[in-house]
Amino acid sequence: MAVFFLETSALLKRYxxxxxxxxxxxxxxxxxxGDLLVASYFALIETESALTRGFKGxxxxxxxxxxxxxxxxxxxxxxxxxxxxxxxxxxxxxxxxNHALKAADALHLATAIELTERSGARPxxxxxxxxxxxxxxxxxxxxxxxxxxxxxxNLLRQRRLWQV
Length: 164
Prior knowledge:
This protein is an alpha/beta fold and 164 residues long. It is built from eight helices and five strands, in the order βααβααβααβαβα.
């Protein structure tokens, strides 16, 4: 079983068709085969915010928005949702200083670090944010960037190595 941690830039690709959406669909199909998909409560709120702002900014119509929110709400039952306790916020502070990350990005990475510390499972960090990918790599996470070319084939070939 592989564990994948999805931060907002990756998770959003499930609800909004864009470069990298195919890989995120693949991750959700792997979840049906026993892999674990993890996200923080914050990522779910941030994803809902992005979808709502996209609708209000007329990036998509009301039906697309309604279906996206409905799917996100359903995914609350599929995803392993991580809380954001005070201990995670303390890790954020270190990440902001060490990597010059935005607060939200530090929160995602800190949540993945906290998950590792509590469970012993080191998730594969999924993000399409280049700064966050760089920081996650420096924090010794295996990283999947849905927007990279040929990432889907590489993911399937290397998945066995990432099993926890």
